[in-house]
Amino acid sequence: MERGSEDWVFMAGQQNLVELFEQALLAVDSLEAERLLTAASHAVLPMQLIDEVIAPALERVGEKWERGTAALSQVYMSGRICERLVDKLLPPESPVRTLRPKLAIVVLEDFHFLGKNLVKSALRASGFDPLDWGHATLEELVNRVRTEAIEVLLISTLMLPSALKIKELRAKLDAAGLAVKLVVGGAPFRFDPQLWREVGADACGQNALEAIEIVRGLLKTAENGKAQA
């Protein structure tokens, strides 16, 4: 069969499509990745492609990095490629995106950005649109959560003193009546698996892929709550 035909991908099966897409990401071959999705988009909805092809392929790339069989540069470029392709499948103004919870991601009183950027890229590649607040102080966060009506705030820290300030942030948010979910990550939380509970966070992600699953779980919980109301 001609490899370029529109139905070739699904003739090979969904699992094979994920593998082919993963190979294109690892090779940093954006043209091949786009070709695979374009062919598949004639048969399935965009959100299905994101959930059943892009997200699993990104997860595999991340797992390879954790095992030491993929480079961090491959993880980063995979996320960037998928960001661009997701923007084509689901433009920022798409109702599917605008109906999702309002997210923000930030580095709290530290000055490292690699982890935050990886998480942001992975979230965008999965159809979410987190606001990137860069670096912020505790007081700035309380004000921005209020003015921008943030529902989920993802916080990255590098040093323990910054991580401990999340407890104060939680108290200030509660005092202001802001029901925002806090998802934390970074080195202090890897060293102490219980630290996220101690600082009052709602969840902790060890990597970008866990962050995606946490946000999806929060979205599902919110949807179930609305359905029962």
Tell me what you see in this structure.
62% of the residues lie in helices and 11% in strands. It is α/β, with parallel strands linked by helices and 229 residues long. The chain folds into two domains: 8-89, Methyltransferase, Methionine Synthase (B12-binding Domains), Chain A, domain 1 (Orthogonal Bundle), CATH 1.10.1240; 100-228, Cobalamin-binding domain (Rossmann fold, 3-Layer(aba) Sandwich), CATH 3.40.50. Strands 2-1-3-4-5 form a five-stranded parallel β-sheet, sandwiched between helices. Helix 9 links the parallel strand 3 and strand 4. It starts with 7 loop residues before the first helix and ends with a helix.
Strand order of the largest sheet: 2-1-3-4-5
Query: How much helicity do the residues have?
Result: 55-70%
* Order of secondary-structure elements: HHHHHHEHEHEHEHHEH
Task: Supply the helix-strand structural class.
Answer: alpha/beta
> What is the mean predicted local confidence, pLDDT?
83
Query: Which assembly state applies to the chains in this document?
Result: single chain
β content, as a range? Answer: 5-15%
Major β-sheet profile: 5 strands, parallel
The CATH class of the largest domain is Alpha Beta
How many domains make up the 3D coordinates?
2
The count of β-strands is 5
Shape: globular
